[in-house]
Amino acid sequence: MDKKIDKIKEEIKCYHMKTYDDLETFRIKFLGKKKGVLTILFQELKKISLHKRKIFGKIINDLKKEVQKKIFNYKNDITNEKIIKYDPTIPGKSIKIGSIHPLSIIQNRMIDIFIKIGFTYVDGTEIEDDWHNFTALNIPIYHPSRDMQDTFFLQKNPDILLRTHTSSVQIRYMKKHRPPFRVLSIGKVYRNETISSHSNFMFHQAEGFYIDKKVSFSDLKQTIHYLITSFFGKARIRFRPSYFPFTEPSAEVDIYYNSGWLEIMGCGMIDPKVLKNVDIDSEIYSGFAFGLGIERLSLIIYNIKDIRMYFDNDVRFLRQFKSEF
Ligand code: PHE
Predict the structure, then answer these.
(1) Separation of CA 245 and ligand 1 centre (Å)
(2) Does some domain include residue 94?
(3) Ligand 1 centroid to residue 211 C-alpha, Å
């Protein structure tokens, strides 16, 4: 009898239940009216001596309580679990949301600004051929930017390279579309160079261009002015005469920042030779183009000291930026 009871005790303790059905099976197995393990034991009690009956009666009764306790506890557990599953008022687990990269914030903002004045946004390709990146843009064969030191060539003869500027998008777009058009494109450009504020082989440029009848330098100035005031409200800028092979006249735009002038973009009227390369009649159409460094602009807007921070992927830095400013 002792051994039998120990076995039953162990069985009750280890019995595992998951569902209401399991619970019912457990109850019937031990307390079932006809064949329940404990029910039978109770019946067997009648056959033994009064003395033993008292001892075993208590033991079997304790087992019964054990079974009832287990049923009670499991019922609670199962009910609670069901409630957790179906209660719609329990708050969801919070999902951590990342933040938008400062360069993306500036890019998105820039797109918004230009969409408002009728520009179309297009993407370009980062891998270019010589014609789109240089030749069609009137960059002569001996121009230093073609040099192995400046340009990352992927292949020579025919030359395939990582674009050195987004101006190649001008060519791609103008070949396919007829004026009038206003286009903005933003993306990565690659140069093998180390200049003061960015010791980086890659940075982002925004390219804008507008071609129509009678587009003039004053349209260019007005557009740049609109761009700068959209970003900064009031800011001092200056146009400095400059040279680019694909614009004539050309200028660089500086912004007054931290008690000095900082160059942020190149621009100019698209050279008639470039228009000719893409079969646009420069007697009828004229246009302007500009190319702007996104990192530079972002440095000024967020007052960031070191351009490398954009690419270090340090979340303590990255999560400080909010989409609105
Ligand atoms: N592509 C030039 C650069 O990378 C910038 C530029 C674009 C200048 C368009 C004039 C017109 O420096």
Answers:
(1) 9
(2) no
(3) 16
Output the residue whose Cα is nearest ligand 1's atom 4: 165
Q: Which residues line ligand 1 (CB under 6 A)?
A: 165, 167, 244, 247, 266-268, 289-291
289 CA → ligand 1 middle, Å: 8
User: What is the tally of structural domains in the chain?
Assistant: 2
Distance CA 129, CA 168 (A): 9
| Distance from the alpha carbon of residue 167 to the mean position of ligand 1, in angstroms | 6
Using a cut of 0.90, tell me whether the model's pTM lies above it: no
Buried b (16+ CB within 10 A) or exposed e, 7-25: ebeeebeeeebeeeeebee
Report yes or no on 291 lying in a domain.
yes
Domain of residue 185 covers 102-318
What confidence tens digit (pLDDT) does each residue in 125-164 have?
A: 999 999 999 999 999 888 887 877 689 999 999 999 999 9
Tell me which H or E stretch contains 26: helix 20-31
Per-residue pLDDT tens digits for 56-111: 899 999 999 999 999 888 888 777 666 566 677 878 888 877 889 999 999 999 99
Q: Which atom of ligand 1 is nearest to the CA of 266?
A: 8
Q: What percent of the chain has pLDDT over 70?
A: 94
What's the CATH code of the domain at 193? Answer: 3.30.930.10
Per-residue confidence (pLDDT) for residue 155, from 0 to 100: 94
Q: Which parts of 32-119 fold into alpha helices (H)?
A: 37-45, 50-86, 102-115
Q: Looking at the structure, do residues 55 and 156 belong to the same domain, yes or no?
A: no
Tokens 């931290």 sit at which residue?
258
